[in-house]
Amino acid sequence: MKPNIVFMLTDQWRLQALGYAGNEQVQTPTIDQLAKESTNFTHAISGWPVCCPWRGSFLTGQYPTTHGIIVNDVTFQSEFVGLGTAFKNGGYDTAYIGKWHVDGNGRSHYIPPERRLGFDYFKALECTHDYNNSPYYAGDSDEKLYWDGYDVFAQTADAQAYIKNHKQENPYMMVLSWGPPHDPYQTAPEEFRAMYSPEDIKLRPNVTPDMADDAREWIAGYYAHCSAIDKCVGDILETLRETGQLKNTIVVFASDHGDMLGSQGEFRKQRPWEESIRVPFLLRHPDKSGQQVDAVLNA
């Protein structure tokens, strides 16, 4: 039987903000355990560390210079077989939940089925970072709906329901695409923000003194988003386990690019340094034990 495939994608999560990668401050116990069970690509690189170009490559298998999305908020300029279509052709059911960000026709506009690259179950929005007032469109309706509360939790719950309700005649490929830890940083639920205090944050040595105070504030909120997502990764894995599907599901945890967060005196992405381009990429296969691959992966 073909395995199910679950992609869990984050936005702007740098490799240096994970416990398994050596960060002793951020609390990511579930992902750290996932790393032990996965093929851990230790040198995964975001070859084009900007949201839309990376996502365009993920969804088409083409480089940005081919698919044409070389900056944010533009449309595809090439012919391709979309990721969802490729899996449908292989006998899979397809689902996409969360942030889309490759349509290029307005960040809050409805995305019709013919522009969904083969994904049938579709609850998504082009782009928002208002995580507590987060709209989306569902199915074939152009009615704008809103996720309940912090969208990371609501999207995760929807993915759990998909896993539980999926009929097992066909395998499925699902992409769960979260917006955080992309800024704004101070918008995670209070219980996670309370885990981190700016004055306790230890900065990377390449953070410039003039940005140190701001960086501590940013990073405290950034880590809060990370820990909230870590909980959701655990929720997805537990649902797969409870339904007996974990033994036949490939799980991928990855990010589109990193975040400078004051390193080299810079912020956010689209920079040539490691904080911007080094990303997590974990692939858990039910028949493979944990291992590390140090070869460079253009993720």
Textual characterization of the structure:
The protein is of the alpha/beta class. 28% of the residues lie in helices and 21% in strands. The longest helix is centred in the last third of the chain and has 31 residues. The two termini are 27 Å apart.
Mean pLDDT: 97
Q: How would you describe the shape?
A: globular
Number of strands: 10
Poorly predicted regions are none
* Overall SS class: alpha/beta
The sequence of SSEs as H and E is: EHEHHHEEEEHEHHEHEE
What Rg is obtained from the alpha carbons, in whole angstroms? Answer: 18 Å
Order of strands in the sheet with most strands: 6-5-4-3-7-1-8-9-2-10
Distance between the termini: 27 Å
Count of helical stretches: 8
**Beta content:** 15-25%
State the helical fraction: 25-40%
Query: What does the largest sheet look like?
Result: 10 strands, mixed
Could you outline the blueprint of secondary structure elements for this entry?
Blueprint: E1 4-11, H1 29-37, E2 39-45, H2 51-60, H3 64-67, H4 83-89, E3 93-99, E4 121-125, E5 135-138, E6 145-146, H5 151-165, E7 172-181, H6 190-193, H7 212-242, E8 249-255, H8 274-277, E9 281-284, E10 291-298
Parallel strand pairs: 1-7, 1-8, 2-10, 3-4, 3-7
Antiparallel strand pairs: 2-9, 4-5, 5-6, 8-9
Helix pairs in contact: 5-7
What descriptors fit this protein?
alpha/beta, 299 residues, 10 strands
What is shown here, in short?
Helices cover 28% and strands 21% of the residues.
